[in-house]
């Protein structure tokens, strides 16, 4: 098996989950490279139903390594809840079989709230967002003010990063007559979950490079579909990330020569 990227050729819901699940049985590594917990899928393996939104499909198969790449936006609370859910079903999730890119950007409560505010204000012109904060999180990433996984390692660094991002968000919230966020309260919540997130954190680009030279079979799992791509889709009715196959390299930190075949 070559290293394969699986993408949807329409607007999502093309049945990628079934294909990815079938291919993950043959792969050694399964990588998510874009999106967030806005696109879920259901897997049924040996009569057990698993509902995944953020975790790669390979996580439910023993002996596979599952990776969340730098191109994914991660709601840390949703991730921990999903991990607990499948652990309760008997799935092992450890530092050995699950890796989060240290440079992945976090979805925080003010992102989902801003998503809701905008959708409600748009009326009939609304885009149809999932209201989970995906778009606003990508905005912060591009605006260079986002909180990343690696920022959770240092309370002083997190403090500085929160100053920057809350200066932006609280100014908007104040203008909309919404309650502003208190930095100390949010910092406390993040530091509380930091150890649970950081134990899975690694430089994913380096790990994928190692896997490549170990001749491991890598499966890149796309979310949504190419017609929802922010550049190449039916704009403005699109998602906020690049869903095309080329983003598998950018969103995981590997070179394009790592990709051997595109299935979509």
Protein traits:
Adenylosuccinate Synthetase, Chain A, domain 1, alpha/beta, 264 residues, 2 domains, 11 strands, Adenylosuccinate Synthetase, subunit A, domain 2, 14% strand
Describe the structure.
It is a single chain. 36% of the residues lie in helices and 14% in strands. With 264 residues, it is α/β, with parallel strands linked by helices. It has two domains: 4-104 and 199-263, Adenylosuccinate Synthetase, Chain A, domain 1, CATH 3.40.440.10; 106-197, Adenylosuccinate Synthetase, subunit A, domain 2. The chain has a seven-stranded parallel β-sheet. Helix 3 packs across helix 4 (134-142) and helix 5 (155-175) crosses helix 6 (183-198). The mean pLDDT is 93.
Radius of gyration, taken over Cα atoms and rounded to an integer in Å:
18 Å
CATH third-level topology of the largest domain = Adenylosuccinate Synthetase, Chain A, domain 1
**CATH top level label of the largest domain:** Alpha Beta
Q: How many structural units, i.e. domains?
A: 2
In short:
By secondary structure, the chain is of the alpha/beta class.
